Amino acid sequence: MQSKRNFSAKREAIYAALASTTLHPSAEWVYEQLKPELPGLSLGTVYRNLSVFKEIGLARSVGIINGQERFDANMMQHPHFICQKCFRILDLPAGYYSPGKNLYKMLERECDISVEMHSMTFYGLCSRCR
Amino acid sequence: MQSKRNFSAKREAIYAALASTTLHPSAEWVYEQLKPELPGLSLGTVYRNLSVFKEIGLARSVGIINGQERFDANMMQHPHFICQKCFRILDLPAGYYSPGKNLYKMLERECDISVEMHSMTFYGLCSRCR
DNA sequence: AGTTGAATTAGTAATTGTTATTGATTTTGA
DNA sequence: TCAAAATCAATAACAATTACTAATTCAACT
Q: Which CATH number fits domain A1-75: 3.30.450.40, 3.60.15.10, 1.10.10.10, 3.10.150.10?
């Protein structure tokens, strides 16, 4: 099992690259980032390991922006902001909006669904683009 | 003189198909739906016209779910619910959560961004799947 | 009705992000 | 030490979408 085993050097590097930035990168970005230090790395390995991180709860998808899936190693629930021009993804402080279990419960009761999580995303122009 | 061309019959049919359902369909779905009545329709035409609708503000993307982009002709701001098992997308009543211009303004002030819109999505299991 | 020119289309090819396969290499555990 | 399991790079395969091209449609104006 993954949890008992230590990460391989490459898996470790991929996680470190993802965790060290708030850019919410794509697989491609992680690959380009690591290529200089790990010349033998392949893009497929990056994709595979990002999937592993999602499975074991070390990362999540922020969605597919401009055709590419974007990842986040910050597992705290927080809203995102996506710049419609440059496709930067910014973290917003959770304080601005955080629906609690009460909202989940109300939705479950009123809409006959079970709610596991939510995602809140704002769109507009970032400071550089506007 | 400027062209006063109305929607072509096919463009009209594609829009009607999209607007007549709350399934938040994919391009493929619209295509399959219309094929019986419009045997000469091509999938590329569906894709192209869905893009047109997005551009002119007659439809929006609900995101890429399970690899396929899903569309919505309901331009009212409202939250969505995505079933993690069957990938149904349900509309939720806007009343359960609707951040106003005041939240937008606060974000603009505090985070140095300009906010144009937001999207709120809940995930879980629908009534059929849970 | 005929002409014109831009918009729209079908059909197909090309592109793109992602996943699966393969065969080699390394690691693990006994 | 040795065999099974895990991991890997490289490449092929895949599916959704977009781009291209030549043909057709349609409104505006004769």
A: 1.10.10.10
